Amino acid sequence: MTQPSSSIADVLAAYHGRRPDPSDPAQAVSFGTSGHRGRATAGSFNRDHLLAITQAVVAYRRREGISGPLFLGQDSHALSAPAWETALGVLVANC
Length: 95
Fold this sequence. Notes:
With 95 residues, this protein is mostly helical. It has helices at residues 8-17, 47-64, 80-93; strands spanning 30-32, 35-37. Helix content is 44%, strand content 6%. The chain has a two-stranded antiparallel sheet. The N and C termini lie far apart (46 Å). 16% of the residues are buried.
């Protein structure tokens, strides 16, 4: 079955505005071989997820006494820049 097509505007709106439903396992944070996996329009990749994941990384590094550099990259996906901005905001807030 093919997935319905979404415009970039729809994807961005879902990333910023859709809140994941904690009772829906399909909207939980999920990791694959190259990081967090999901679709904004399905509620499985959104700003709330990035906030939580990045704060967890900060807490882990703090707990483990890791103070070296942290590299934050981007790729060519439509949500790469918004996700990068979300993660950067959490990192800066924890400085």
